[in-house]
Amino acid sequence: MSASVARGLRAGRQAYRLTFWTGIAIGALVLFIGLLIYPLARLLISSMTGTGGGSETVLRTYVEFFTKKYYYETLIHSLSVSALATITATVLGAPLAYVVNRFNVPGKLLLRAMIVLTFVSPPFIGAYAWILLLGRNGLITGWFASIGIALPPIYGVNGIVLVFTLHALPFIFLMVSSGLKSVDQSIEDAAINLGRHPIAVAFTVIAPLIVPSVSTGALLVFVTSLSDFGTPMIIGENYRVLASQIYTEFVNEHGGNPAVASALSLILLVVTIGALFLQRWYARRRSFGQETVRPLAPRKLTGGKWVAATLYAYCIVLAASLPLLTIIVSSFLKARGPLLIGEFTLDGYANAVRLPMALLNTVVFSSVSTVLCVVVGALVGYVVARRRDRLANALDAFSMVPYAVAGVVMGIAISIAFGGFPFFLGGTAAILIIVYFIRRLPYSIRSVSGMLSQIGTQTEEASINLGVPPGRTFLRVTLPMVNSALLAGALLTFATVAREFNSTVILYSGATRTLPVEVFAQVLQGNFASASVVGTVLIVVSLVPIVVLFKFMGKDEEFLM
Q: Is residue 231 part of a domain?
């Protein structure tokens, strides 16, 4: 074979490869446009048409929002409770991560497990659990009342901030833990050798180095709190926030107002995206280029310092995990109407007639959407990691958008886009799978692209040069190299989809209700015993894939981020 012929064959194979992956990239771009950009565009259009439908109603809803106290007050409330939750979660969570990672606190595995357990549960579960504990007839409230102490009410701002703080604590813990691993031990040693006290070193040397990690965790706390409407509806009583107002406007039993709900959703979206850009700008300004040769080593505490560190860690983690423990215990208690009696029984599980359907729906919807995320995420992740062109950059940017879109906003956007004409998917399994897929697809994309960025292309190039088509090379060569990342991404996707509530409650019907929706419905009806039963099953379903991820995949809790 002449050299020119060989060059021609190699050029043909390279062109075939480019054509194959270009087709995949274009298909992925069409997918993002159809399932992400199109619904958000429909949401924007819907927000500019009022109930009258005339051209004079364009932007009218936005004007009303910023001029009527009933509306703009919800944004003020949302920003207030989210900011308070962010501050308190950071103040409590950053020291907790430092104590657990740096000192010889006993039972670190247990502490990390309890933090992960808090992470995988929907926040509104903690809301009704705190009602069981600190409500007007709560267990802790009653005990303190018996000794003549009246506790402050759990309802309203106090309860919302408490639930947001404790549920979002893992974000701070996980991000700070990750940031501490990027600090080299030599930096601390040098500061101590120069005469700095270890406490001063923590505040003046280590803390500035992990500012990007802390700010990322704070951003996650803020966005999560801002997007949650289940907690304010359960424990907030008359304290209205923007997310709950969006839900109320969209599903009002006296006739929802999609235009108002859409406008409020766009405002919430702008706030979350603004927070994302602000955090990125701040993190870039405060980031330091550093290489970690020897990570920070644990330090040994003795005496009173050891006792104080241990008590702090266990008190914070216990407070964060107490709602989940309350739910699990309550599921085995006998109920008399809305009241729970201190007598153990399995009647709650035996009488949970709506539990089997909700469980089946959750498992089926989560499994189907997870498979779709794995298949599409593997292909898109390959394009993002291997190609260096504008198309790949566009896909990388699109894959970040779902992170910034709140669940309730995405739910309304998908409902407007696919719930009516010409698709008529409202209330079906298909529309739920669509929203789960597009919201959780970034997990698989990031898992695959992250691993491929650490793997060379020599093996794939050799396969292509030997005449193996790109598709077959991907299946036989590339996939085996990233199968662990795919499986890890799949487990995390399943766990997060199973507990998805904010978008589900917008899109479900009676036949497609899932475990989180069933818990919420039982709480609103005052059936706390039934809610505890379903909530316990939900916790188990969400926790199983995380246990597999940690136990058999060798991952740690930082992979959740």
A: yes
